[in-house]
Design brief:
CATH architecture of the largest domain in chain A: 3-Layer(aba) Sandwich
Largest interface: A-B, 61 and 62 residues
Number of helices of chain A: 16
Structural class of chain A: alpha/beta
Order of helices and strands of chain A: HHHHHHEEEHEHEHEHEHEHEHHHHEE
Oligomer: homodimer
Strand content of chain A: 5-15%
CATH topology of the largest domain in chain A: Rossmann fold
Shape of chain A: elongated
Distance between the termini of chain A: 74 Å
Number of domains of chain A: 3
Helix content of chain A: 40-55%
Largest sheet of chain A: 9 strands, mixed
CATH class of the largest domain in chain A: Alpha Beta
Amino acid sequence: MNSNPPDSRAARAALTRLIEPGDLTGSALVAVLGPTAALDLICGPEDRIPASLQQAVAETVGTGGTKALKVEAGLERWRPRVRDLAPARDLETMRRLGGGFLTPEDDHWPAKLDALGTAAPIGLWWRGRSESADLDAVRRRIAVVGSRDATEYGIRATHELVAPLVERGAQIVSGGAYGIDAAAHRAALASLTASSGRGQADPTMAVMAGGLDRFYPSGNDDLIRQVADHGIVLAEVAPGTSPTRWRFLQRNRLIAALCDVTVVVEARWRSGALTTARRAAEMGREVGAVPGSVFSANSAGCHRLIAEGAGRVVTRPEDVVEMAGGIERGPAPSASADGRAHDGLDIQDLLLYDALPVRTATTPDNLCRVAGLGIGAVLGGLSRLQSRGLAVQSRAGWTRGGAT
Amino acid sequence: MNSNPPDSRAARAALTRLIEPGDLTGSALVAVLGPTAALDLICGPEDRIPASLQQAVAETVGTGGTKALKVEAGLERWRPRVRDLAPARDLETMRRLGGGFLTPEDDHWPAKLDALGTAAPIGLWWRGRSESADLDAVRRRIAVVGSRDATEYGIRATHELVAPLVERGAQIVSGGAYGIDAAAHRAALASLTASSGRGQADPTMAVMAGGLDRFYPSGNDDLIRQVADHGIVLAEVAPGTSPTRWRFLQRNRLIAALCDVTVVVEARWRSGALTTARRAAEMGREVGAVPGSVFSANSAGCHRLIAEGAGRVVTRPEDVVEMAGGIERGPAPSASADGRAHDGLDIQDLLLYDALPVRTATTPDNLCRVAGLGIGAVLGGLSRLQSRGLAVQSRAGWTRGGAT
């Protein structure tokens, strides 16, 4: 039924002001009628909704006609805001601020948002580099989120995680908040000046809970402006909309949907970052959590995610690369195993190696007794150990070789 | 075929000197012939093993007749040590040291070791309180193991984990090594003097890799003596046997088998503690790992266990209690959730709560617009919020109540 007339773009811009993010009745109405007719219905005088439309909306949402999904109840929610509508002004405001408005009809609309189904946003307002506004470009996006009251540990962990990921070509997505979010954006922006030109053009994206005419929190205004200068800032609410608790929760679902992997660096037992992670897990996206001290309340949420099986342990950038199924041809992951001289020995040779004295040389007969091995096993084993430098033969007999 | 004659005890004592821990051919031979006949065979002159006996041993081990399981090859391993046999002297030595020797025929033999199957020890040497030598007493045993080069963080985590578990009646089992092992024993022993008599008689057990005539490492001699004075020290090797790498690995399987839960507090990427944890997991026992800083090499092994799904996240003693299926009637686990005033609100009321101004009072009409709700939802919601102290009505209108 979506007829997508020429003014559907302005209609969607208007609808982002009327309908709260995640209001499934509203999204379903737009899906069923198309944006222009949906807007006409909301702005019109009609209070009675035909049963067939109600039925179609309920079916689109897919949960049957529960009370919360009644279109008539929706009209009650949406209509008090009609008087504030000025979509042309909003579009002009955003153009002036160096941005725009993306709709699902645009080529640059991110296909990843399809995972949200009916809960996908009606449109996306953006500010930033116009090249960065191709949200459907093939690109690994990694969400790095966490506590506002981050610890020094969390900040450091964020930087050490983000820098190598950006260097490999990932875009770091976060929410522009204080703490871990800010550290993630900063670490990504730092790549622009670091590593002698290996930095990439749009290393980071901020997804906001309020309108993009003003950045929240104001203390991060400079930082988020930098994100816009070198990357992109998104919101699904119209300019002038204030961030509320509900909109933060819904913003989190956007971050989860936009990213291949969501990593929580620090989070308290209850934390908005956990909702981002859970939304990502529900969508089948990879979720990671950085462990920390059991005495730090700011790691309790990360440990909770891991304990509940919702998040995998992330201790190194390579863990995220693996979860993302690769990012690009970066340097090979550094070897993490500290192999030892005696690795790979079979049991008998390990027994023999243990029995070999470090200083005073001994005889094969003696080694039989000490190691509890037959003479054949000892002679054969000594030869194998010798070839690996683990046993040394002198005139006095045998001693251990190599590092312990 | 196990005839269990009167001298089977001395025979088992002898066999613990001849056969290395975990030597499945040896254990199977003992299972097939009984300890006395097995010892006679090893000490006798016969080199040729009847095919029927070889077959029975291979079937007992359950892996078919692979080369390593040939009884004739076993004789080559075991016979060089026959000249050192003196089981009566060993039993007397242990009696003199305040200990003894347990065999699977004893009532006090721990049934939990059945999980090892053929790899169960031939016997267990012990030193300690004779009351503590009832290893089959119904009692939760928790293994707490980890790095020798523990950090301050690991030591503290060990203490905070162990003390409440002991207070609830668990016995803490470890390996007597430096670092986490020592911290675990110490924390358990501390309960004897702490908590005004709520401490229990035998709070801890040490399982050693070498003979119990001398404690290893010597720097922990005093500590392990205290463990013996107030609990129990075990080994499956005869007195005078030195600890070797192989015996440490096999000792780890004993710790895993004896305990309901194995917790690794700190471990490097490769660490003996991980083998204990893996053996426990293979037996279907619960395994936990304490997370820590991603910058600490001593937590890398713990994170590895968790990442591989071999260990669950342990951040509090309650986690271990839960894994053990309870320990005894202890104090209820402390609530870990920091609930907030607005928890439990439905979506509409949460939207409304967010829309309520903190200072300047507002009208229901205004709230409709700000919250995006119909007037019915706003009036009903205000009433619900008011009843929870989350909305306050004055003559000027409505403001938010309660803590944010």
